[in-house]
Amino acid sequence: MRRYIYVYMTNIFSNVPLTLLVLEQVPPTGDHLSLVLYLAFITTIAGNLTLFGSVANLIVAQKALTSSLQHKFDFWTYLKFGFLTTILLSLVGTLIIYGLLRVIH
């Protein structure tokens, strides 16, 4: 359960500071391999959760607004898609990491 909290924390604290905070508390040793793998995965995809989760999201929103279509992305419109895809990717990624760790161990 704690792992899913990282999805939301990366949108609050940003990816790099959160990763530094977590890895400072848990050194990346063989005992914590699953945490380190999951943290690397989740900090990559968590930027998809909200419009402000990634600078790339803001760039795309700005380009959409200034394009000939003038499509406006607001926070709630983006969240409808970002929330669902982030949750689905989190579940699939967790299963893949779990499967890989079972093969390794």
Automatic annotation (TrEMBL):
Keywords: Cell membrane, Membrane, Transmembrane, Transmembrane helix. It is found in: Cell membrane. The keyword Ligase does not apply. It is a multi-pass membrane protein. This is Citrate transporter-like domain-containing protein. GO terms for cellular component: plasma membrane. Signal peptide: none annotated. Its main location: membrane. The chain crosses the membrane at residues 5-23, 35-60, 81-101.
